[in-house]
């Protein structure tokens, strides 16, 4: 019993004690995306749901706007696009709680304004590309869509220009996260308990989806929560990857993203070449709008520091 | 979120339609399966080498002379 407790504590500390190496995050994300592609389709990112939520907000204000997809606007909990976002947030939240890293951080008014403007630019860039950085860059490259590389060019250019013209913002890095966790070790021991409750809530939600024949949504929330957990534990952010290329002398994040893309390309190619999934799945239009959209998105994400 | 929701009013058309977007370009259609995979991996590996060299170049510059 003591040995079991020791093993459990050791395993828990390894998984939630310290931030995972970025390359491990990259490898896990690649395999998760390959598995999700086999299950449904690649991770299409947060933008589709953000557009839906924007339309819901306008609808509540009395302004009716058609959806970008030409489809009926679904209730968020019944839309796979929204459930992806819920899962990503929930997974990241669980990871932060279990590792005692959850903290509400305040910023200056100027930082909020700058982030808001950056967010608007990211929204504008997203709808020029047709997707956000995850769908438009990450999954598109894995799916051998030329649009992924076009967006990459735009992102690099936008991040480069923003890095030159904008003041450097202080952002939380790995060492800060570990320091926060260490400081919270005794004082916030209730956080893992809340994390455990949230994990149980996730299982209940997924079970409810399966129980009521919403199998796709059940799988989607589990997959996207896993993505969220890996993003949080490894600190792997695509925006950070592009920002760091030209503003810092540490490109571990971008290297991890590249490793992830290489694994993903191989996996997706096997799946498509053998006809397991349609070859044209997740292949998006590529043109000047993709590069310009990538540029605006890249500039905006550096501005928003996220 | 609010900016993204304005897609149709700004563009006047839905995703994938209209003159702005055009057709999807699947790389194996242009370069064959082998060519597409080789080109994609070559781009990524070249970029990997580039950012590693960029990193090495930055660390060799004295701290006081580094620019953002």
Give structural notes.
The complex is a heterodimer of chains A (306) and B (68). With 306 residues, chain A is mainly α. Chain A has one domain. In chain A, 72% of the residues lie in helices and 0% in strands. Chain A has helices at residues 2-16, 22-39, 47-60, 80-98, 109-129, 133-142, 146-165, 174-187, 191-211, 215-234, 238-247, 252-273, 288-304. In chain A, helix 2 runs antiparallel to helix 10, helix 4 runs antiparallel to helix 9 (191-211) and helix 6 (133-142) packs across helix 12. The longest helix of chain A is centred in the C-terminal third of the chain and has 22 residues, at 252-273. Chain A is globular, with a radius of gyration of 20 Å. Mean pLDDT of chain A is 86; it is low at 171-175. The radius of gyration of chain B is 21 Å and the shape is flat. The model of chain B is unreliable at 60-68 (pLDDT under 50). Chain B is mainly alpha-helical. In chain B, 16% of the residues are buried. Chain B starts with 6 loop residues before the first helix and ends in a 9-residue tail after the last helix. Chain B has three helices and no strands. Chain B has a domain at 25-58. Chain B has helices at residues 7-11, 18-21, 27-59. The chains are: A mainly alpha (306), B mainly alpha (68). Chains A and B meet through helix 3, helix 5, helix 7 and helix 12 of A and helix 1 and helix 3 of B.
